[in-house]
């Protein structure tokens, strides 16, 4: 299922759409001088994708905490927790798929880098079962991945740079899609910027930044001059999730706003000079008592408990009540959704984590808000669905095959179960192309190697007759498929029926 985020308008007046799934696979870099509209662009992207994907925002200035009121993001105050608590919070975020804003406001540069490094490492080191797709948005990325050493400690800089490099270079396999924004490309480490395949370039003036931006966009030096003339909120877009050629776009409006905005001119007070002297040097009054200290941030345990709740704060009262589905109705919806996913031609070549998110969206579209199926359970149901089994309890005879498949790696279970199902019912042996589609590969040669592996481990036994028809048996269950061609177009052939001569008759007698 393709999800497109409306980022605004292109120079031709058409909607500028960003392919969210492509963004998750290819990452995004946003560059522009202060005041060019980077934060506005990020907010547009976050608001447009909030209902589709988990979001983790690293916010050094506290600009994005207002998302919590409208979209339910949980705010993690980085200054209020220890290193161990930040690590544990990051792990819980991936486990429960909670969208959060890590607010680093109030920390000095060294502490911001150290906190962000611990937090990103916690996201990166999550167990494989928690590798759900997530957008990781890092504003002012040059703070956390500087090109050169600055006034911060070497330990903090190395830790932060390493975490940012992991996010951009190796995060995709773990479901983490980096979206980084920077004021100057020259200040951002090259190995971090180079991993992005999508670019949104805003207004910039320095020649070195214009040259790097033009190089990333594939523009010559003369074309690069247009970057200097961009208005606020206007960007040049390029990348597989945006446009195959540099395309000017104007970012659309947003629903939320930052706590601080751009400075506005207001008239100076008309105070006569004498009154001004009096105001400055009149006898000092007793200092006012200090304001009460702000309430302490919630403890780590309290914050982690909130992550396990499906709805935050007052939003729970706003949720419309829906009738509870019975177990049979829930299973029927899950079966229909799995059938839709398997029938999608592209589903075989997408990761289980992406398909799990698609599964959740499709369930909600069918009126099932909570399928009660987590990622490990979904992977097992997906393997069964790819084998044509949408209700595991429907046929008790197939239970031994399901138990036997547990001994195999997860990616091989679907193809094994499909063969076992054909063997149970005596159906024609699946072709190499059909097995390849279930496994998620275009290579018949790889299928043959997989079948050989299963045969060496005693899970399957192949027999190819003189006509080239193949039968596959499951020795441990005593099941065997019917004959079938190895190629997709081959029809199974049967042997000619033998005749014996009857001496007492002129014709043949069928044996």
TrEMBL record:
InterPro entries cross-referenced by the UniProt entry: ATPase_Atu1862_pred (IPR014588), HerA-like (IPR008571), HerA_central (IPR002789), P-loop_NTPase (IPR027417)
Keyword Phosphoprotein in annotation: no
Pfam families assigned to the protein according to its UniProt record, in alphabetical order: DUF87 (PF01935)
GO terms of molecular function: ATP binding
Stretch list, region Disordered: 477-511
UniProt keyword rRNA-binding present: no
Keyword terms of this UniProt record: ATP-binding, Nucleotide-binding
Helicase HerA central domain span: 10-77
Stated name of the protein: ATP-binding protein
